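Justification of resources, computational component.

The compute hours requested in this renewal are based largely on the per-chain cost of generating structure records like the one below. Each record pairs the submitted sequence with a full structure-token output. That output is archived, and it is also reused by downstream analysis tasks.
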Amino acid sequence: MKKTLIAAAVLAGLGAAGAAQAQSSVTLYGLIDAGYSWSKVEGQKSRNAIDSGLASESRFGLRGTEDLGNGLKANFLLESGFGVDDGSTSSSNFFSRQSWVGLSSDSFGELRLGRQFILGTSFFTGIDPFGTTFRQAAMGSTFIAADQIRDSNMAMYYTPTWSGFQAAIGYSFNRSSNEVPRTGANNRAITSGLHYANGPLEAALTYDQVEPATGGGVGKSTQLGAAYDFGVVKLHAAVADQRNVAVNVGDAPTGLTNRIFSDKTISWMVGASAPIGNGSLFGSYQKAKDWDIKGFSVGYTYALSRRTDAYAFYSDIDNVDNIGRSAASDISSKQLGVGLRHRF
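The structure output for this chain reads:
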């Protein structure tokens, strides 16, 4: 059960007699994920390990809200990643996963300022059978913007939700580091999208763009996807048009300063998920045509309780390795993971 610290009686001015003060709350939450990992890249020896974050990145965070009255709220989120296997932090920046503050209203939507997920990732979490996680099994292996991408220095606006529809747009003045006054020295980025979730249907359309500080072509990624739940099975599909992008694992669309891939590719993914027993069975096949990346993945999660589940997955994808991606030769990368995931 989430531990919620309710500061219901915190008043901004205790000396102001009779003044009605807003209520606020802060929630501590987190996820701990660890398990056995086996991986084999063609031409290399296999790796056996106890790893953190096989299915979902381990993290803890604080989220808070304050009711400002008249339907307006102040919100914040601070989230840090860590490794369960060795206790290390996942980045030199403590709240590298997310750190933002904002205002929200049912009538006017929500504004967030700070480091946060781009829409190519957040709007496709329910469309990818793997939830854009499970390492190379996720659609981020071929869909650049869906690869768990977060941008710093971003202002993001979400509209209210109307009959399942929501739109959003964000702009980062420098997605990877602090802004500087020099012309062309900032990695500026745009993220935009439409999302629909109502009944059995979920669909999303996103456009992400990065203007690299080092020059070169502007990286562009357009994604379209949908998932439909028939009850006994849920079908997933997505397609992307990606241009002028060169990618390392965990990076976003960037200009082709190191021309590893072709300057354009069409990626697509098809998948399915179904409730099996006290868990869920899911799988997908994905391909990026001009990058010559293709392969299949399958996984299963079993709920031990409302907060804890066990999982297993296997993935076999060509031209993806655990360092980066290469289209130079037909390299097969296999991953197998069995682990435990607990939420608090």
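The radius of gyration is 21 Å. Residues 165 and 196 are 5 Å apart (CA to CA).
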